[in-house]
Design goal:
alpha/beta, Rossmann fold, binds adenosine-5'-diphosphate
Length: 167
């Protein structure tokens, strides 16, 4: 098994995402965590901020790299000689979207396999949007996102509440 890609907007990276990365890195010799530009969403953190955050929380894992992707993942995989896409599966609601995405990627790049990891039961109901909602109401973010992300998330939310503009 060679290089595997784990992609997402990571706006911000949560403990659920980090759990998938930690487990995948035991199985695959090289993981590229791919931060997607995702033109359809208006992110809380800029692309550069999200890349820096993912790099910070994965810095202790020697076989994990961070990259940016403004291309189709299937194309990104071809360029980077990756043959596996990792996806995390939470509730049944993830299944339909993930299944069709796997089929589309297979069609675009027949050498690419999608591997699904079942979400850890602790993180089954964790999502970036949920974490942002908790932050917006000033909840304690311990146990939701990596500790390095708590301060930037809290202060970005404070900026917004005070009328500052997020990028
Ligand atoms: P995007 O914003 O690009 O849709 P997501 O954060 O929704 O990114 O998802 C990126 C990947 O991480 C998907 O495979 C998703 O199922 C997985 N994922 C997200 N949250 C969790 C979690 N709590 N546990 C396991 N996998 C997760």
């Amino acid at each position: 098994m060679g290089t595997a890609i784990y992609s997402g907007s990571f706006d911000p990276i949560t403990l659920g995402h980090l759990n998938i990365i930690k487990r995948a890195r035991i199985v695959f010799p090289r993981i590229i965590v791919c931060v997607t530009v995702n033109a359809g969403k208006s992110p809380l953190f800029t692309l550069d901020e999200r890349i820096a955050q993912v790099a910070l929380v994965t810095s202790k894992f020697p076989n994990v790299e961070v990259a940016v992707c403004d291309n189709l993942i299937a194309e990104f995989a071809r360029i980077n000689k990756a043959n596996v896409i990792i996806r995390g599966l939470r509730a049944l609601s993830d299944y339909e979207r993930e299944f069709s995405m796997a089929l589309v990627n297979k069609k675009l790049n027949p050498d690419l396999e999608t591997f699904f990891l079942a979400a850890d039961e602790k993180y089954m109901y964790h999502s970036s949007s949920g974490v942002k909602e908790l932050a917006r109401f000033g909840a304690d973010l311990t146990g939701w996102c990596p500790r390095e992300i708590i301060e930037p998330l809290t202060s970005r939310m404070e900026q917004i509440t005070l009328g500052g503009k997020a990028q």
